[in-house]
Write a structure and sequence with these properties.
314 residues, alpha/beta, single chain
């Protein structure tokens, strides 16, 4: 690809503040696009800038309202493709439907793969995302996927706090690899919560594997949705003698009564990133939001100039 292509960044309505922060890092303006709805709910998009031959990045998290934001992303990609952009990259800080990545029972869809197909068919030629719920989702795409991790941002925050007697806790067996890498950087030990999922958005803590008595804990997860699993985990950890409990996650979905539920739990701090916008009531709690704009901005710059993205994590 020619190195002198114009870099153009557009944003849907899901997380415009993050898009603005990314543009500030790159010292370029956020491009002008109209994204609105007709009276019957149909999404309308109009690109108000020339993108012919440009290298275009569309920033849109598929966060609540998930289907509305997903449609905005698809229609924006289509609009840019029909405007003769040279290359289109879908920047999806939070990839919705990621938890539906396999068949866990008969006659259910693999919606992660369906959404990947939709994004590709709309016209995206590359995807940039962060902390996918399952790594194999990268293979659902037939186009290149750059997968970023928020761990460096979270680790820097906790390093500065200098917490002693620290244990990093995985809320389930599937997060052990993530927790082990996190603990290595913080020179901490790990523990695992053995849980059983009894229904959608409902889980039951069975056992705790690891020494947590009189220890300070960080429960690390990629997504907090309803908060129910975290609250039950904290109760179980406290019953076994844990001291201060911190919670860290990349994607603060916080659906339903999650914020109210978490505010009543014995949590020292909840540390999240801004891949999703926080609701106003979250700002009056012990929730700390860290920006991933620099990380995403640097990845966009490296993709644009065709430099290595993986070297960001060396």
């Amino acid at each position: 690809m020619p190195k002198n292509l114009d870099l153009k960044i557009f944003s849907g309505n899901s997380n415009r503040k993050l898009a603005e922060e990314i543009c500030d890092y790159l010292f370029i303006p956020l491009c002008d696009v109209e994204v609105s709805s007709f009276s019957d709910g149909e999404t309308f998009v109009q690109i108000n800038e020339n993108v012919r031959g440009a290298d275009v990045y569309i920033i849109q998290s598929t966060c609540p309202p998930v289907n509305q934001n997903l449609m905005e992303l698809l229609i924006m990609i289509d609009a840019v493709r029909r405007s003769s952009a040279r290359r289109i990259t879908a920047v999806i800080p939070y990839y919705g439907y990621a938890r539906q990545d396999r068949k866990v029972q008969p006659r259910v869809p693999i919606t992660s793969k369906l959404v990947a197909n939709l994004i590709t068919t709309a016209g995206a030629r590359r995807v940039l995302s962060m902390d996918l719920h399952a790594g194999q989702i990268q293979g659902f795409f037939d186009i290149p996927v750059d997968h970023l991790y928020a761990a460096p941002v979270l680790i820097d925050y906790f390093k500065d706090k200098k917490i002693d007697n620290l244990v990093i806790v995985s809320p389930d067996a599937g997060g052990v690899e993530r927790v082990r890498a996190f603990a290595k950087r913080l020179k901490a030990s790990i523990a695992i919560i053995d849980k059983r999922r009894i229904d959608t958005n409902k889980a039951e803590v069975m056992n705790i594997i690891g020494e947590i008595k009189n220890k300070n804990l960080i429960i690390l997860d990629d997504i907090i949705d309803t908060g129910g699993t975290i609250v039950k985990a904290i109760s179980a950890l406290k019953n076994q003698g844990a001291k201060d409990v911190y919670v860290a996650c990349t994607h603060p979905v916080f659906s339903g009564k999650a914020i109210e539920r978490l505010s009543k739990a014995e949590i020292k701090e909840i540390v999240v990133t801004n891949t999703l916008p926080l609701e106003k009531q979250a700002k009056n709690t012990n929730i700390i939001s860290l920006s991933v704009a620099k990380l995403l901005g640097e990845a966009i710059n490296r993709i644009h100039i065709e430099a290595s993205v993986s070297s960001l994590f060396v």
